[in-house]
Amino acid sequence: MRYHCRGNAAGSTLRLTLGCLLGLELRRVGSGTRLTFGKAGEAALTQWMADNAQVCWLEHNEPWTMESELISQLNLPLNLDQNLHNRFHDRLKELRADARERTRTLPISA
């Protein structure tokens, strides 16, 4: 959870998704293989999440058994894995792919 809340898009699919939906510019950094929203974009995303995101959890002896069941029963539009049935799935996948494609045309950020 800490990395989703304070990390960067290179290590968090949640951050990648939210940043793309918010229109942040995805950039290649470092050697050019890592994709983030840059320092300013990641800071803006962290602040947006602090202001707008909520987290809750449920203790379960075998939490890995719950994921498929929850995805099939709930409307979880930001989850791509195992979620082809969600009507937002294709659009979200397209938004993320477009952001990756756009960043390949830009120079590597410092």
TrEMBL record:
Q: What's the protein here called? A: GIY-YIG catalytic domain-containing protein
Q: Which Pfam families match?
A: GIY_YIG_2 (PF20815)
Question: Domain of life, per the record?
Answer: Bacteria
Q: What is the lineage of its organism?
A: Bacteria, Bacillati, Actinomycetota, Actinomycetes, Kitasatosporales
Residue stretches making up the GIY-YIG catalytic domain: 2-97
Q: Which InterPro entries match?
A: GIY_YIG_cat
